[in-house]
């Protein structure tokens, strides 16, 4: 009977173990973000994708501090230790990611986290990063042209340097009446 109780407690404690991942400090202009991790168990490896961007690199954070090799493709970040090292329980930046693209929303995607023996860990994901307001193509909008307040449409009231005459609307591409 005691063995069953101990087994049940161990199973319950194991099933409560989770890794929480979220996106922090997203800087679209610089093309950087942090993947933040809260983990109550050691992590032996990880893999994840990010939607709507092209990943150009990943480094630093607890992955680097614990000797993980981190590699990237345009769609995936992969991290593990060649020596069997782990990222101990705790919280902080897992990796800093660099990227290109003009996303409207960035989400963690296809996330796999493993314990030191390679078994999958339970994962909870934070919210996606969503461009909160303004133009949905930040690389195309010109906020410094003396334009009216950004209403999210990328349309600003300007006189378009007299090209259209009067108060014509200029779109993200700089086209009067576009």
How would you characterize this protein structure?
The chain is mainly beta and 178 residues long. Helices cover 11% and strands 40% of the residues. A hairpin with a 4-residue loop joins strand 1 and strand 2 (32-39). The N and C termini lie far apart (76 Å).
- Topology as H/E string? HEEEEHEEEEEEEEE
Spans of at least 5 consecutive residues whose pLDDT stays below 50 are 5-15, 136-153
Q: Main β-sheet: number of strands, strand sense, barrel status?
A: 5 strands, mixed
- Number of alpha- plus pi-helical segments: 2
* Count of strand segments: 13
Q: What are the SSEs and their pairings?
A:
Layout (H helix, E strand, L loop, with lengths): L1 H15 L1 E10 L4 E8 L5 E6 L3 E6 L1 H5 L3 E4 L3 E5 L9 E11 L4 E2 L1 E7 L7 E4 L3 E2 L25 E3 L9 E3 L8
Parallel strand pairs: 1-10
Antiparallel strand pairs: 1-2, 2-7, 3-6, 3-9, 4-7, 5-6, 8-11, 12-13
Describe this protein with a few key phrases.
mainly beta, 178 residues, four-stranded antiparallel sheet
Give a short overview:
The protein is mostly beta strands.
């Amino acid at each position: 009977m005691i063995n069953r109780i101990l087994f049940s407690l161990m199973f319950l404690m194991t099933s409560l173990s989770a890794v929480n991942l979220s996106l922090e400090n997203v800087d679209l202009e610089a093309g950087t973000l942090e993947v933040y991790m809260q983990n109550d168990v050691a992590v032996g490896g990880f893999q994840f994708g990010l939607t709507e961007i092209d990943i150009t690199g990943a480094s630093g954070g607890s992955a680097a501090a614990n000797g993980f090799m981190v590699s990237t493709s345009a769609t995936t970040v992969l991290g593990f230790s060649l020596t069997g090292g782990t990222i101990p329980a705790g919280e902080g930046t897992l990796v800093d990611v660099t990227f290109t693209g003009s996303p409207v929303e960035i989400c963690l995607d296809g996330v796999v986290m493993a314990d030191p023996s390679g078994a999958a860990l339970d994962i909870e994901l934070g919210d996606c990063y969503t461009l909160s307001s303004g133009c949905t193509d930040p690389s195309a909008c010109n906020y410094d042209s003396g334009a009216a307040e950004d209403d999210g449409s990328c349309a600003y009231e300007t006189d378009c340097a007299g090209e259209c005459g009067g108060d014509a609307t200029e779109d993200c591409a700089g086209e009067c009446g576009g």
